[in-house]
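User:
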Amino acid sequence: MDILSSFDLIIAASVIVIISFWFNGISKKTNIPSVLMLIVLGIILQYVLKIFIPRLPDFTGSLEILGTVGLIMIVLEAALELELKREKLVPILKSMAIALIGLVASAWIAALIIYQFIPEMTMKSAWLYATPLSILSSAIIIPSVGGLSEAKKEFHIYESTFSDIMGIMMFYFLAAEFDPAQDSGVAGFAGNIVLTIVIAVVASYAIILIFQRIKSQAKLFLLIAVLLLLYAIGKKLHLSSLIIILIFGLIIKNIKLFFPGKTAIFLENERIHQIYHELHIITLETAFVIRTFFFVIFGITIVITSLFSLNVALISVLIILSIYAIRFGILRIFIGSDILPQLFIAPRGLITVLLFYAIPKQAQVATFESGILLFVIIATSLIMTWAMIKDKRKMGTMLDEIDEELVARNEAEDALRENEGNLEEEVPEEAATTETRDTPHEQDLEDLDGEEEPPMEPLS
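Assistant: Predicted structure:
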């Protein structure tokens, strides 16, 4: 029986999406990342498929396509949430600094560990392998931090988005060193970023002005197609294409900031608002579907036996310890003492896998075991899960204490009201008793009134 028929694939895809939606519900209640549950689902499917198919197909191409589109949707989704206001400038710059320092420091330490423990590894290749392991996963973080306070939630959205973008730029800058045709040095890299920003701004203004005049109802996927096209062309030209997506999202979210004063006459506000609202929904839904299939397929491709290697475990544990030690130092410097649960929200995920498969052949080292990648992804996700659950319990305990205080206060107020009521009841009774008694003066008057007047004697 062929279990890979078109109808079987449709059924499987539909069931996976339904299960993923269910996982999202569980994640909101338990703070266990849905991505982790999707990876476990993929591992289970791997063993189920092996019963029917002796040799599984190669999913590398599918992972690359899903990962790229998913990354674009996730960055766009994050950009559509970011408000550029004067009071948010400091949090944005602080998040960017934390993301950049954390990325470079983590990659440096991880590169040293990989270079020391993996035979045949050069330092240049070690940096390339270490970079994906040093990038935060916005695909995991953004859906998982909804229950945090607004300030902490914004911090994680900014930090993970900047980490993704700067991590990709750093990876391709390092990868260019293995291809002399692409290696343009630091000056060329800086010029590349400036050129990308200029193209992004011009393209974003053009897209907004053109698309607000399109009257067709089916224009949102056309817009997404244009963004994907710009991204792909940018990659072909060796530009930092993810900046294009980020800038477009920021402009359409903060439209009044980018069309100030008299330039606002070029906007049709109602249509711009409609485009933003619909685009936000479509990116959210598309990111959800693509993230679902990416991590399920990644789970199918995982080689579980690679986790049981002592060398893999040793290297992975050292990298994980370095990640949190560096993060602790940076957060203490930039944020202060209130660094929980931010300290432990540092998972690796989609972008780590995507860049791992993008390592050039010239830089690949056969002795590097992919189990390190899997170990770090699963461990950092589990640590984040533990921190989020602990934070939720802490918040629950605080809320319980507040509830107890409110209950005690309400009981005290009720008791006070009852006492006041009793006093009010006693006062009228005493007043009534007092009213029934006559005062001595009134009694004397009554006595006088009651006495008979003596008869008057006639005048003589």
